Amino acid sequence: MTTETVTALEAQHVLQTYKRQSVVFVRGEGTRLFDADGRAYLDFISGIGVVVLGHAHPGLAAVIADQARTLVHTSNLYYHPLQGQLAARLSALSGLQRAFFCNSGTEAVEACLKFARRFWYSQGVTNRTAYVALEHGFAGRTMGALSVTANAHYRDPFGPLIPGVTFVAPDDIAGLEAAVTPSTAALIAEPIQGEGGVRPLSPEFAAAIARVTKTTGTLLIADEVQCGLGRTGHSFHYQSFGWTPDLVTVGKAIGSGIPIGAALVGEHVATQIFAGDHGTTYGGNLLSTRAALYVLAQLEALKPHIAEMGMLFEQRLQDLQRQHPLIISVRGAGLMRGLELAVDAQPVVDAALKAGLLVNRTAERVVRMLPPLTVTKTELEEAIGVLDGALASVKVKGSTVEMRA
Ligand SMILES: *Cc1c(COP(=O)(O)O)cnc(C)c1O
């Protein structure tokens, strides 16, 4: 198997919805990935914030293998020994009483959008069906999640989407107050907008969201798919704002690579949801819940490490900013970081890949970094060194950027 044979076969038979980097990873170990030619890379994107324990984690591999030998899947027709345990653990972390298990972040968003409408409908309020979402926000690509995703590039080819969604700029408090009306079922927001360019909500705007949703009774859905579960040092990033959301989405990190998601539901909402209202064949099966229980058990012990590495990461990125006028801002929290550039981020991402560091471009001008939460100080320093070189290799010419020969 070579890079050429793999890419040629994909080009023929895989639907071309992704613009992939020209590299085939065949093996991983901790923060390292190895390509088909045996070359090592430092992985600072970790499957887009998913592989939080690092690649081929021996403990996770052991519990997955053990569960695979025991029982993988039985469906949601029957009780199983692990869903209650995982739901209780998520409840302890979030303060929300119940969990609905699904297979991805998008499905968690879909579930929350449905539960929010059901909450009002169950109480005989049939006109609260609208949603408020934020500009630069991302919630997924299915019809519902896409309807509360701002990016026109993702939306426009697929209309008409769910009607009654109003987008508010994430610093426009007056706009927020105007957008939430008596017909609003719920407001959905990412505490740190990930795909939108690693943009944390300002404390003022976060406080306005809490106030407006509370005074109008509008349900608050915190989309924690990317920023949640330790990524920023908090169990959930909304906790840093003092929010008490009614619904919370969980995805990406929870299985460290085994697909699982969850919608966390406050008890006042849960009492308005009934058997048959929602469901999934795979959601929370034995294999994925076993993996998630293991991941969450590791998370608590990792928190001091995340705090320490997050602080170091921020300092080093700020050092880079002082050396490279190309960097407009260093954004994010903990181990969720973005470098906002004055130019398109792709040449920097490409140069980093060539030098053996995986990062990604989002919102055009942002270099996004989501390393495994187990990343070491040495690996952080190494990544900063590579970024330094990658930034130096692109020079600004007017508004265009080109690689130096
Ligand atoms: C990635 C993401 C989603 C979608 O999750 P998938 O696992 O891709 O379905 C939803 N919301 C946010 C904030 C995300 O970052």
Key terms:
405 residues, 39% helix, alpha/beta, 4-stranded mixed β-sheet, single chain, binds pyridoxal-5'-phosphate
The 3D shape can be described as globular
- Which class of secondary structure composition applies to the elements? alpha/beta
- Could you list the spans in which at least 5 consecutive residues all have pLDDT below 50? 397-405
- Into which percent range does the helicity of residues fall? 25-40%
Largest sheet: 7 strands, mixed
Mean pLDDT across all amino acids: 96
Bound molecules: pyridoxal-5'-phosphate
Cα distance, first to last residue? 31 Å
Give an overview in words:
The chain is of the alpha/beta class and 405 residues long. The chain contains 13 helices and 19 strands. The strands form five sheets. It has a seven-stranded mixed β-sheet, sandwiched between helices. It has a four-stranded mixed β-sheet with strand order 1-2-3-15. Strand 13 (327-333) and strand 14 form a beta hairpin. Helix 4 (83-94) packs parallel to helix 11, helix 11 crosses helix 13 (377-393) and helix 12 packs across helix 13. Residues 397-405 have low confidence and may be disordered. The structure holds pyridoxal-5'-phosphate. Pyridoxal-5'-phosphate is lined by residues 104-106, 109, 138-140, 190, 194-195, 223, 225-226, 251-252.
